[in-house]
Design goal:
The complex is a heterodimer of chains A (210) and B (55). In chain A, 76% of the residues lie in helices and 2% in strands. In chain A, strand 1 and strand 2 form a beta hairpin. Chain A is elongated, with a radius of gyration of 20 Å. By secondary structure, chain B is mainly alpha-helical. Chain B has one domain. Chain B contains one helix and no strands. In chain B, 5% of the residues are buried. The chains are: A mainly alpha (210), B mainly alpha (55). The interface between A and B is medium-sized, with 28 and 24 residues.
């Protein structure tokens, strides 16, 4: 993360078009891509749950979706700040890319409403898994929306001709993305381990007080 | 030192990310403190039941 910040602020050149506010790109886009990765992981774990019925995949899927929601919220907040800096508005309903990402985010927020409206057990695990799998369909739609809908507001950096940025900009972007993926992975592992310890302690307490 | 509006927005965006990481660290610290307390309580329960078993 420290290396990413050094590259972003001291090595990568300032964008000729947007000026200093373009620096937000180096965290905003990796955060969005990390959110997609988390939702994709949640869907994969959900599929594994439905295939094997192993309880651990429920926790792993839930945790991945939870992380994805956090990164999704950060995407929307950093994106709004960048929008204000670049376009003078906090949000543009005319942008399909923005609206579709918001729909994706709200869809996964509803995941928690579904999950916690059901009693813990196999029914909750299966229902959550099916919902997480449906959500993953929205990811490529959201990702491709900018290309499909001729969105003239939200910039397209990665095109069929490659990344539209200089070498150091691309390096800074890659390092930032790696740092955020690593952060997401650490958060994911810490949350899972914490929940497993919680469950073990609860079971131990029940055995000792029985 | 004059700060342009672009620089302010960049600082705000990065501050949001930093704040999110700090909040996460604080939540983890609180959770660890709770787990430590519960582990201590359970250790006490085990000691009590062991001493009752010896006595």
């Amino acid at each position: 993360m420290a290396l990413a910040l050094v590259l972003v602020f001291f090595v990568a050149p300032v964008d000729a078009d947007q000026g200093i506010s373009q620096k937000i790109f180096y965290f905003h886009v990796p955060i969005a891509l990390t959110a997609y990765a988390c939702f994709g992981t949640g869907a994969w774990k959900a599929l594994r749950l439905l295939m094997t019925a192993e309880e651990r995949y429920d926790l792993e899927s839930y945790t991945a979706v939870h992380q994805g929601t956090i990164f999704g919220a950060l995407t929307l907040v950093t994106g709004s700040i960048w929008a204000k800096a670049s376009w003078g508005v906090w949000w543009a309903w005319s942008s399909n890319q923005l609206v579709l990402f918001l729909v994706l985010f709200l869809f996964y927020c509803a995941y928690f409403m579904l999950r916690f409206s059901l009693e813990p057990g196999s029914r909750r695990a299966r229902s959550s898994a099916v919902y997480a799998l449906f959500g993953v369909v929205l990811i490529p739609v959201s990702f491709l929306a900018i290309r499909l809908a001729n969105d003239f507001i939200h910039p397209t950096v990665f095109t069929r001709h490659g990344a539209q940025m200089t070498g150091w900009m691309f390096t800074a972007f890659c390092v930032s993305w790696a740092a955020l993926l690593l952060l997401a992975y650490v958060m994911y592992r810490v949350e899972i381990i914490g929940k497993q310890i919680d469950a073990n302690l609860r079971e131990l307490r029940e055995l000792l007080t029985a | 030192m004059r700060v342009s509006s672009g620089e302010k927005y960049v600082a705000a965006a990065y501050a949001v990310v930093l704040l999110a990481v700090l909040v996460w660290v604080a939540i983890i610290a609180a959770k660890l403190a709770r787990l430590e307390r519960e582990t201590g309580e359970l250790t006490g329960l085990v000691r009590d039941s062991t001493s009752r078993g010896d006595g």
